[in-house]
Description:
By secondary structure, this protein is of the alpha+beta class. The chain has helices at 40-57, 61-70, 118-124, and strands at 3-19, 28-36, 76-78, 86-92, 106-108, 130-142, 145-159. Strand 6 and strand 7 form a beta hairpin. Helix 1 crosses helix 2 (61-70). The longest helix is centred in the N-terminal third of the chain and has 18 residues, at 40-57. The N and C termini lie far apart (58 Å).
Amino acid sequence: MKTLLKNIRIMYPNLAYPRDFDGNKMFCYSASFLLAKGDENYNLIHDAIKSVADEAWGNKANENLRNAKTNNRICIKDGVGDFEGQYILRSGTKKETPPRQPRRPLIMGRHPKVQIQDGEIESLIYGGCYVNAMVRPWAHEYAGSKQINCDLLAVQFVGHGEAFTTSAVASADEFPVVPDDDDAEVFF
């Protein structure tokens, strides 16, 4: 069930290049989203997850959802630390093994017809900015464990927000000039 989450903060966007997070040579694109309990986005994804579970597991849906949450097998998690009292929705694309490449989600600017190009993705969409996101939760059974995953289909930039982290970059002005000295001691 496709679900459009609107004006939501993105966390850990991995949208420019596919990455192997588990060290198993399975690459994917991914992003997480911050949800406030009871807001419209939370209600939309909660209802979509419940609907998917009902369709897949029938009268066992509630039991399987409880077990999935207990066993960390569901795409929505309780926030911790600075995000306590909120929820984090994890989503990603299908994992692929090289030479196959995972399908990148559609990445758009404020206007849906303006797709963001490769070199612009990381500078425009960063952890803390606001986006619209199209996701699709789905039920899955793996090794006897029932779980709910979430496909990441598209991300649309909405606006800037306070970045969750900053990456300090050094300036060349901060370094001294190193003189050419053939007699200098080498430390390697």
